[in-house]
Amino acid sequence: MDVVEGIKRGDRRALARAISVAEGGGAAPLVSALFKETGRAFTIGITGPPGVGKSTLTGALVTRARKEGKSVGLILVDPSSPFSQGALLGDRIRLSDHFTDPDVFIRSMASRGHLGGIAGATGDAVMLMDAFGKDLVIVETVGVGQSEIEIAEVADTTVVCLQPGSGDSIQVLKAGIMEIADIFVVNKADHPMAGQLRREIRVMMTMLDWQGWAPALVMTQATAGEGVDQLWQALWSHRAYLQESGELRVKRASAFAHEVRNLIVGRLAGAVDGAMAAAAVSGLMEQVADRVLDPYAAAEQIFQRFDPKAPHSPGARLAPRVRATVKGFHKASETETAHHHKMIV
Amino acid sequence: MMSMPTHTFRIVVAKPGLDGHDRGAKIVARALRDAGMEVIYTGLHQTAEEIVETAIQEDADVIGVSILSGAHMTIFPKLFGLLRERDAGDIVVVAGGVIQSEDVPRLQEMGVSAVYDAEQPLQALVDAVTRLAAERRVRLGL
């Protein structure tokens, strides 16, 4: 199957396969072939703690978008198990109204060990859906705590979804996710504490110095579809602001710079693993374990001999003795090897 | 490629039709997850169209259909018809739930690769799904 041609033709199976390829680390040729077709979609991030109603709100937004005739791509991220690497992806359950709509494409995505609230391949999947021709691409993050803010690198507009009765104003003030919001949503607005949360967000907003766009605040009751029109309008107001102020380009340029940096760091990480394995073989790590050499000095020695273009040597290929020596590293590669064997035998 | 190949299999666990009992489906979903697979659960009351569309968009290796209502002889022909129509006949289909033994050969004739009920150990199901998904990847050169 030529997935690039398939995506250009609008073949849904090709898009699905392409996303899997990207998840497996093979995005480079796809993105290279399709990059010129991207940049048209309005990308929206929906984030917030578990259970606030992100999926229900996303479903309500899709209904609203379809009323306007906009096609939608959805990426729903759920966590992978750190133990089995498996995942139970259940966000679809709240989107069943849209399963057979030919203009809605829904993809569940496991985080696969990525910690920023999205998966490593989420950005690539957004680009693929954009190239496919979706008007809107909505990314729903895993249920986040206070610091998973990577969605703001992927989305043009970030919606931070909160619910009443889940913490005092200090929680509101300290959370890093509060600083990435272009739009705040207080969902479950029928809750008796909803007014208080609304006031707390308002107060917090007056204390911060906004330049340009001050985040909108929308009260919703997603299960009943209430407030969704206001959210829809807020999304497009922010979109208009981004375009008119020129900030959309600035924002995307900064996101691309971040992405390019990540790609380089990713490749360096492979070379670092190789250098670490070599250091283990040469007995350097033993010296650290025996407290003969301190960790900083060991790092300096490895760094001095470091070749960033050294071929990536996956842990699975290392001799068992070496794997046992490289602490931490050996655990991951053991599971990977076991996993690998289980799957292919 | 810089990164290692991935063997993460993707399984859609689907509940078709009117039966509202999904404890079995959830237990199976959890067991497959614990075996390292990515399991997409559709929720209750799915039509054959919804199941096939989900499997296509999720790039599933296997669809596991849990059915306790006795409607399997109606649902499976429809499911296979749609899979062929959408050029997705390569997706493996397995069945679980309450299925009379005399129906099993007929389901297999339709294309169901394995049938499991509550009597069989969960591990046998997990092993079968793993094997079927791996064979599919080999068949398709993925």
What does this structure look like?
The complex is a heterodimer of chains A (345) and B (142). Chain A is α/β, with parallel strands linked by helices. Chain A folds into two domains: 39-245, P-loop containing nucleotide triphosphate hydrolases (Rossmann fold, 3-Layer(aba) Sandwich); 255-344, no CATH class. Chain A is 48% helix and 12% strand. Chain A has helices at 3-9, 12-23, 27-34, 54-67, 122-132, 151-154, 169-174, 194-207, 228-245, 247-281, 284-289, 295-304, 320-325, 329-344, and strands at residues 42-47, 72-78, 87-89, 104-110, 136-140, 157-162, 183-186, 216-219. Chain A has a seven-stranded parallel β-sheet with strand order 4-2-5-1-6-7-8, with helices on both faces. Chain B has one domain: 3-Layer(aba) Sandwich (Rossmann fold). A five-stranded parallel β-sheet of chain B has the order 2-1-3-4-5, with helices on both faces. The longest helix of chain B is centred in the C-terminal third of the chain and has 19 residues, at 122-140. The model of chain B is unreliable at 1-6 (pLDDT under 50). The interface between A and B is large, with 43 and 40 residues.
Number of strands of chain B: 5
Largest sheet of chain A: 7 strands, parallel
Distance between the termini of chain A: 26 Å
CATH fold description of chain B: Rossmann fold
Number of strands of chain A: 8
* CATH class categorisation of chain B: Alpha Beta
Computed over alpha carbons, the radius of gyration of chain B is 14 Å
CATH superfamily of the largest domain in chain A: P-loop containing nucleotide triphosphate hydrolases
* CATH level-4 homologous superfamily of chain B: Cobalamin-binding domain
- Largest interface between protein chains, with number of residues from each side: A-B, 43 and 40 residues
Residue-averaged pLDDT of chain B: 90
Order of helices and strands of chain B: EHEHEHEHEH
Number of domains of chain B: 1
Question: Helical segment tally of chain A?
Answer: 14
